[in-house]
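Format is sequence with structure; example below:
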Amino acid sequence: MDASFVCQSRYPCGILLAGQLSAKSTKKALFESENMETLLSFAVGIGLSAACGFRVFVPLLAVSLASMTGHLHLSPGFEWISTYPALIAFAIATVVEVAGYYIPWVDHALDTLATPAAIVAGTIITASMATDVSPFLKWTLAVIAGGGVAGVVQGTTVLTRSACTATTGGIANPLFATIELGGAVVTSILAIVVPLIALVLVSALLYFLARRILRRTPQRPEGAIRPPLG
């Protein structure tokens, strides 16, 4: 008797084959779902890290609120962000930070503290979003992507504020502070609600900033002769 006929005529063979195919498709779907969740979590982290470059504590306050209401799930070890003491501390720090940038010349003093604080906050936020990756990969990406993005955005705002102070004598600084605050709030909301769109916007912002920096970098003429060393 033909083996294919036996396989087709008896149900256990077909059921076993269907079960194997179903198990493979289920594993593939779970793998793709986990990869998508990991991508979304890093997109949220990077978007919030960019917001730290505008205001350090606004994104931390947003993460605390979103995690307490169940809109964000934090990585193990970062549950303290979704506690009431942390929420109150972030709220007070946000009010103090926002108010300080409206006081003339105090904003420049805050920039000295905000630059390293933004890098640390961006690193912490990105690490807190990475829920299903190894600790080594989590902290590597958190430092490079989260801290790096926050540092670049913060450095750009510092340079822009210095130029604004030099050209307007500090008169336009409150307007610039309002724009920064709006950027922090909008970027934080987008990162939580539509993280992929926020990631695209952050990438476009970094590309724009990189082009401006390269344009301002002085270029050596091709036929220029380098001065002798010593």
Observations:
- Residues 1-11, 27-31 have pLDDT under 50 and may be disordered.
